[in-house]
């Protein structure tokens, strides 16, 4: 008798940021016998009723997602996630837990994947009763930086270097500046963090 088919549902919210990491994760899952669905998050979510039941792997578990998480689980899916912005956080550990997680969403998530042991320790300290939800896994987006994958973008890198010359790139999070609700988002973050 063959093993049941395992499905992995991989939503992508921002293609430039998350697509290739999701493809890498999906490729590893497919090599392990999983069937994989990768798609634009809003379209995948709109079709979730008609998709096979499986492991839905999201990019975060902020409190506003609780109803969606519960709905996906009610359909028969397992809900797992990683905090794509969980490696570095402002305001210290207690602010991170308040701002990026909630007791309710973490309780509904299994596993919640962390970038490493440092992030896991922060979450364990903030929500110790839910420490069993954590799995230290790393991040597929960061796996794209591995030396054996450097050739993936070699041609594009060479074109940029030829065009721009030497440069330094400072990646940052400007969501509270460029977002449609920027001022309100900034105020909410300040309230949550106590700043």
Q: Reading side by side through the largest sheet, how are the strands ordered? A: 2-1-3-4-5-6
As residue ranges, the low-confidence spans are none
Give the biggest beta sheet. Answer: 6 strands, parallel
Q: Write down the overall mean pLDDT.
A: 89
In percent terms, what proportion of residues is strand?
A: 5-15%
From the spread of the alpha carbons, the general shape counts as globular
Question: How many beta-strand segments?
Answer: 6
Gyration radius, in Å: 18 Å
Secondary structural class: alpha/beta
Concise structural overview:
By secondary structure, this protein is of the alpha/beta class. 45% of the residues lie in helices and 14% in strands.
What does this structure look like?
By secondary structure, this protein is of the alpha/beta class. The chain has helices at about 15-30, 40-45, 65-75, 95-100, 105-110, 115-125, 140-145, 155-165, 175-180, 180-195; strands spanning about 5-10, 35-40, 55-60, 80, 110-115, 135. The protein has a six-stranded parallel beta sheet. Helix 3 (about 65-75) links the parallel strand 3 (about 55-60) and strand 4. Helix 4 (about 95-100) crosses helix 6 (about 115-125). The longest helix is centred in the first third of the chain and has 17 residues, at about 15-30.
């Amino acid at each position: 008798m063959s093993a049941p088919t395992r499905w992995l549902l991989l939503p992508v919210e921002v293609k430039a940021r998350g697509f290739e990491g999701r493809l890498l994760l999906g490729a590893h899952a497919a090599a392990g016998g999983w069937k994989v669905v990768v798609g634009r998050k809003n379209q995948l979510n709109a079709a979730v009723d008609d998709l096979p039941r499986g492991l839905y792997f999201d990019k975060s578990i902020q409190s506003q997602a609780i109803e969606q998480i519960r709905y996906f689980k009610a359909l028969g899916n397992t809900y797992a996630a990683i905090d794509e912005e969980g490696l570095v956080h402002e305001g210290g550990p207690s602010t991170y837990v308040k701002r990026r997680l909630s007791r309710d969403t973490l309780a509904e998530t299994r596993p919640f994947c962390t970038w490493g042991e440092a992030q896991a320790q922060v979450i364990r300290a903030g929500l110790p009763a839910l420490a069993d939800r954590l799995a230290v896994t790393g991040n597929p987006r960061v796996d794209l930086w591995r030396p054996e994958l450097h050739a993936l973008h070699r041609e594009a890198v060479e074109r940029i270097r030829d065009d721009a010359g030497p440069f330094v790139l400072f990646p940052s999070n400007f969501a509270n500046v460029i977002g449609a609700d920027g001022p309100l988002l900034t105020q909410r973050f300040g309230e949550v963090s106590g700043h």
